[in-house]
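INFO batch 0412 | record 1 of 1 | parsing
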Amino acid sequence: MVDIQIIIFQNEDNPKLTHNTNDSKRQAKPPGFLNPFREPLVRRYNIPFKAEQTHCPICQRSLCVLKTRKKRKIKAIGIGTFIAYETTMYCPQHPAVGSFKSRELPMIVPADSNFAFNVLVEVGKLRFNENRQVAEIQLILLQKHAIKISTSEVEVLINNFLFYLPAVHQQNNDLIKQYHCCPVNFYISSITYLNYI
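INFO prediction complete | emitting tokens
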């Protein structure tokens, strides 16, 4: 069972009039002003990811905590922004066995990224199926999915998408042959599918 703690971060934008000082006059924001590149009010979850292995495979003793990573902020479509509490376990009697981590987290997000696979797929669809520009993708992710992302991060995800696309294609040649229509959409959706096999 996943224990979820909900933390609500309030939006700091205040459309009310600001006071005037003798040194400088601040202009008030018009009513209903919203910065399109500011992350909206979101719920941020703390989700623990623990190793499925609880005992040492050699001596059958309970594993000990090696380290806990508590500051990895991950953004995913459908979940939003959450903090992954990743706990690494090990056996102090048999350190040569290595450490044990959760197998769920690598299925959601790549090891070197803070954006989930479904964000990667969405960026690829917007760029290559809809021919959207980087700034448009940035705005769509914020407005439609409440995911704040910089233009440089969008470009990195586009490059990562191009890296995953041929790998998925090569691993699914037999499955792709079953589809007689244009398989572009299948390639894109299969990136997420492969991570759940």
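INFO post-check: Confidence is low (pLDDT under 50) at residues 1-25, 29-34, 192-197.
INFO record closed
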